[in-house]
Amino acid sequence: MDGATLVSVLLLAALAGFLVLSALKFWKYSRLSTHGRFDLYPVPKEGADKVRYGGSYFEESEWWAKERTTSLSTEVVEIMKEMFFIKTLFERQRSLWWASFLFHAGVYVLFGWSVLLILGAFVRADFVIAVINVVGELGFAFAAVGTVLLLVRRLTDEASRVYMAPADYFNLVLILAVLVTGIASWTTGANVYDVAAQVLTLSVVELPALVMVHFVLLGVMMVYIPVSKMGHYAGKFFSFHRVLWDNDPNLPGSKVERNMRAAAAAPAQTAWSAPHTRPTQTDPSASEE
Amino acid sequence: MSVNTKHLKASDISRDVDVLSPVDDLMTLPSPYDANGLEPKFKELKPGWAEEHCASLDGFIALDTLKRPETQEEEDEFVEKFLVGLEKLFQDANKGALQPLQLVTEFCAKCNTCSEACHIFQASNGDEIYRPSYRVDVLRRMYKRHFTPSGKLLGGFVGADVDVSWESIARLGEMAYRCNLCRRCAQACPLGLDNGLAAKEIRKLFSQELGIAPTPVHKKGTVLQLEVGSTTGLTRPALLDTIEFIEEDIEERTGRAVKFPIDKEGADVLLLHNAGEFIAWPDNPAAFAILLDEAGVSWTLSSELMGYDGVNYGIWYDDVQAKKVALAQFEVAKKLGVKRIVVGECGHAHKAIGVAADRMAASEDKVPVESFLPLMAQLVREGRLAFDPSKNDFPITLHDPCNMVRQMGIVQPQREILRAIAPQFREMTPHGVDNYCCGGGSGFAIMNSYNFGDFRDKVSARKKLEQIINAFGDEFSDPSVLKCVCAPCSNCKGTIRDILKAYKVTAKYNVHYTGLVELMVNALVSMEQPYLEFL
Predict the structure, then answer these.
(1) Which of A116, A141, B256, B506 is 20 to 30 A from B402, alpha carbon to alpha carbon?
(2) Contact in structure between B391 and B484 (CB atoms under 8 Å)
(3) Residue B158 lies in a domain
(4) In angstroms, rounded to a whole number, what is the distance separating the alpha carbons of residues B168 and A43?
(5) Nearest residue of B to residue A225 by CA position?
(6) Chain A residue with minimum CA distance to B189
(7) B484 — phi, psi (to 5°)?
């Protein structure tokens, strides 16, 4: 196997690794989902009227005897605003939002571009290529500018700098290196559609050195993202949907009740040590959270 | 060497200085408190206190049960036990909070958006140790260093760089008690991460593994409550005496013969008060009795052990204690055969039995729980209570208790009531779910050991004082205008009482405080005399 083929195989393996490791991260958090209640309002599924001021079903006397209406659409809209627009940051820290939004928007657009490349690799119509080119240019521009702005902020803002570990800079430098080599590869003559077609069909004839470097860095980044703090795309779903916005009451016959019974049937393997936490004959309930 | 308290690193937590971050630069209060000289001074730290406890964080002591080791062996043993507890925090011993804790420790982007939301960070003009993310960063780095492959292999490169020593552990424990657990920071987090919850997890580690918690919340809190029935020490005979006294007082003041129903089986409502009300503010349970009596509600109090004090300090620091208290409270309600538990004016009691306990007890062991607020709003809406709002015709502002509002979503009922009884009601800014904590949340209201009360009055409650001053605008400085802060929560009320006294706000500016039900009774058409004592 020549070097170009090896790099292509590694890149595809890294892509698969990204998907598998991301799925593992989702799985890790989903199996931890039976926990206490940590509602924090506004909770979007309470519906558009209540989410405006942060109200809940607790505002009604004898709430348990009334039919509870929840709004999936309001929750989906709110989580989308958080995921794609970073709404909370927009509202509360605009100066950082510009950098963060450009960065994340660039990443999302580049993901879309990568998928479009598959189309472009096999459908070479001028219109299709033109659209994909624009998407790619926008993605690279947004992501690169966002990354540089985030890096500058981390280096210059004292309040941020004291919290940064070297790995936090490494993350951004790695992404920047991927972006810069990607832009350089594209603008120095490599035909991205030919390269994409060859990589996808594992029929790479020859790759310029710059493209090889880009692919190696891209592969490293793909595998690294899900195992690093950058994997927060998985965490964000759980922190909102399963923690702050989970206000489902533990009523007879409810899904919560079934989950709690299942959790109770699997007692913890570890236990706290302070004397008051240990079970006693008169108080067998101790030691349970 | 001087320490820049505005930009400390997590690794500075183990720095060898007498006090890591003294409180010496507080947020300026609005006029007239920017220049009237009425701000109280801090108590001097007595030398013996720092020798015995950890006063090296900011000069205050919350953990009065945390003692300095006398020998190296004691210190080593303490560090070892802490590390064991730290590991358990991320194991199934802590399954009730594992997911949110792992999320905040793994994914915090350190964007510091939470900082601007924190009233303590604001009040200190940005002292790093009060930044919501700082204490969690210390915890994260300690955990990484000892328990993650990346931390063990790469050390400082991934931020696993905080020394675990007695001093750093003790400072971490103290830092967990510089947060009111109001969770306003979590509301501000773009990733939905909860640094407030993480502060409680640190408290939990100290209590559930090391057996260390402030005396007022543990020994004189949950332990006393489980032993005698109330954190106040109020026993059943004392409760019955107190109620008898309150009944006599109501009759003397209002001419009404209101009888408190006690242990009435099958009543619709078991009213669960914070027992502190019986002792510190008996007008509050009296007001409930007057209102429920006048509206014809079927209700009862319980005189059983665990049936007459709705508090549950466990939710601030110890899940095991929280569960013991909650289960015992449900058991009393079950035994009485009431249809529902209605929680009186106590914010954390609302959250404890209404939310936290919801998943602690099996559904067959529970009794439905609701706040007094929707019930009272319903009585107002249905016209079962007749009001003359002109009796409350003075400026009134409302404090939103975090536990009822931000953490339960009860926002409108109290406003519906106030609109019906208080023509000069005005909101604080911000309010509702965006409110600021009173500064007494999570136990601060009852923690007065050593100099900790000063921290509450001057730092954690500072933002609330600012809000109160601003809510009354120009009228604040005019002592001829009687003004009132309505705080429908015992802990919040106690904190507001303390700051109004410490800053001489009542004496100089005629600002008073009360609960909501007292204002309701004051506005009743049927009341011939004012019910509020300050009128």
Answers:
(1) B506
(2) no
(3) yes
(4) 37
(5) B107
(6) A88
(7) -145, 135
With CB atoms and an 8 Å threshold, state whether A59 touches B433. Answer: no
Residues B411 and B510 grouped into a single domain? yes
Report if residue B533 sits inside a domain: no
pLDDT band at B121 (very low <50, low <70, confident <90, very high): very high
Q: Cβ–Cβ of A36/B97 closer than 8 Å?
A: yes
Residues of chain A contacting B375 with CB distance shorter than 8 Å: 61
Q: Which of B124, B316, B408 to probe by mutation at the A interface, max A CB count within 10 Å?
A: B408
Q: What's the rounded Cα separation, in Å, for the pair B43 and B21?
A: 16
Tell which of B177, B209, B241 closes a domain: B209
Strand partners, A21: none
* ipTM for the predicted complex: 0.95
Say yes or no: B432 contacts chain A, CB-CB below 8 A. Answer: yes
C-alpha distance from A115 to closest chain B C-alpha (Å): 27
Q: Are the beta carbons of B463 and B439 closer than 8 angstroms?
A: yes
Residue written as tokens 């303390």?
A: B498
Average pLDDT, chain A: 92
Q: Which domain holds residue B294?
A: 221-523
Structural domain count, chain B: 2
Average pLDDT over residues B422-427: 98
pLDDT at A285: 54
Q: Sign (positive/negative) of CA torsion A227, A229, A232, A233?
A: negative
Residue B478 within any structural domain of the chain: yes
Contact state of A61 with B375 under an 8 Å Cβ cutoff: yes
Q: How far is CA B263 from the centre of its chain?
A: 29
Is B327 in the A-facing interface, judged by CB distances under 8 Å? yes
Q: Is residue B535 domain-resident?
A: no
